[in-house]
Amino acid sequence: MSPTSLTLVSFIACAAVATTSTAQTYDIVIQNGRVIDPRNAVDAVMDIAIDDGVIAAVETEIAASEAGTVVDATGLYVTPGLVDLHAHVFFGTEPNAAYSNGYNALPPDGFTFRAGVTTVVDLGDAGWRNFVQFKEQVIDRSRTRVLAFLNIVGSGMKGGPVEQNLADMDAKLTAMRAEEFPELVVGIKVAHYEGYEWDPVNRAVEAGESAGVPVAVDFGGQTPPLSLEELLMTHLRPGDILTHAYADVPGRIAIVDESGGLRPFVPRARERGILFDVGHGAGSFRFDQAVPAMRQGFPPDTISTDLHRASMNAGMKDMLNVMSKFLNMEMPLPDVIRASTWRPAQTIHREDLGHLSVGAQADLTALRLREGDFGFVDVEGDKLTGNQKLECELTLRAGEVVWDLNGLSSSAWTSSR
Fold first, then answer.
1. CA 21, chain centre distance (Å)
2. CA 198 → CA 137, 195, 211, 220, 239, distances in Å?
3. How far apart are the C-alpha atoms of 217 and 204, rounded to whole Å?
4. Are 306 and 316 in contact (CB under 8 A)?
5. Distance of CA 311 to CAs 5, 256, 317, Å?
6. What is the CA radius of gyration of the chain?
7. What pLDDT score does 24 carry?
8. Do 160 and 152 meet the contact criterion of CB atoms below 8 Å apart?
9. What percent of the chain has pLDDT over 70?
10. Positive or negative, the Cα torsion across 278, 395, 182, 337?
11. Which helix (H) or strand (E) holds 370?
12. Residue 203 to residues 226, 233, 298, 368: CA-CA distances in angstroms?
């Protein structure tokens, strides 16, 4: 072989070595954050590697040289993407349609990622009649993962007489629509009925039984109120959900009585398997319910917002504000994270969500826990002061950065560039 050939071979070999040594194994590595992953019992400073949209590794140390992008999460809490179990996102411009293609619902992407939420569950805006429209108009066009509880009312949550129409509460057709879209429909919702009978609840349970999904109940509106104890102990099944758990509204018995005591049947209902969801909203969360319930050992199973046009600008604000309220009512941070990630994922039978297992889709958020003097307001305008507040620094959805408050994932700008 000639010297020229030897030189060429040597050049090619060296080039190959250089290419191998500079190749990155992962798209993104998040370093030095305190990882809280309740499903996997992780609560420690760890590094997380992401490649091709999934969690590739969770280890005590992953070299920065292995990643195309490195995020330093020192001082931050890295958690699964938050799962908001109760939101209203079937937005539209239909007059007098309330939350079902109406003005009261919100486009999800504008209100999710900035609060660390990667999955929202629309709780009953669409019924079997207009779910396909909801899918095409909102679900298919959103970067946020949008799942849904079907309203037992076929026309959905349009308010007024529409939601009082027993003739449009068809368990068979509701179940059929749920079974048609099992990857999207994760439950059945019943709400706002003012008649003094159990038919809407029973029909929702029948649909849930047929489709193999849970039922969520927004209960109340009757005078005198129907029995909350009978709802929880007789009509609902284990795994079904009472949302607005800490509400005190006309036409519904509250879980905390007038003397501040938790009603005895409430913990018994939890033992039976009934789940209690926050569903804060604009009218359904009061400190005179939540604080005594927490002091008597009754935290929520799931934390959620009841996001809609009114609640976002009132005491609710966003998912992290609701979570911060429970932190300041002495709910430990790992429990708050569990109730906002893994527990709601379990509740809707979507155990592919709400955790940071290797191989899971890379939905995650990096949160800062700020310390200071903060005020938190309930739906009555009463204020609870606290010294802790969560803030979202970074959100990834399927491995892509969708929110970055302070440019953690960006390169520094210099004048020479």
1. 41
2. 33, 8, 20, 11, 19
3. 9
4. yes
5. 74, 23, 6
6. 24
7. 86
8. no
9. 94
10. negative
11. strand 364-377
12. 16, 17, 29, 44
The structure's pTM equals 0.93
Question: Which residue type, as a one-letter code, is found at position 175?
Answer: A
Q: What would the two tokens of residue 8 be?
A: 């060429």
pLDDT in tens, 307-321: 999 999 999 999 999
Give the count of beta carbons closer than 10 Å to the beta carbon of residue 186: 25
Weakest-pLDDT range from 14-18, 53-57, 324-328, 356-360: 14-18
For helices 171-180 and 199-211, angle between their N-to-C axes, nearest 10 degrees: 30
Distance between CA atoms of residues 242 and 284, nearest Å = 12
80-364: which CATH architecture? Alpha-Beta Barrel (3.20)
Alpha-carbon distance of 207 to 401, in angstroms, equals 38
* Amino acid at residue number 61: E
Residue 154: in which H helix or E strand, if any?
A: none
For residue 276, give Cα distances in angstroms to 202, 304, 342.
19, 11, 15
d(CA 275, CA 246): 13
Q: Name the CA dihedral angle for 122, 128, 130, 133, rounded to a multiple of 10 degrees.
A: 70
pLDDT tens digit string along 121-135? Answer: 999 999 999 999 999
Report whether 372 contacts 4 (CB < 8 A). no
Task: Give first-to-last CA distance, the chain, whole Å.
Answer: 46
Give the C-alpha separation, 38 to 400, whole Å: 23
For residue 202 the two structure tokens come to 């029973």
Comparing CA positions, the residue from 87, 123, 135, 107 lying closest to residue 318 is 87
Cα–Cα distance measured from residue 111 to residue 106, given in angstroms and rounded to the nearest whole number: 8
- State which amino acid sits at residue 412: A
Residue 153 CB partners (closer than 8 Å, separation 6+): 127, 162, 163, 165, 168, 169
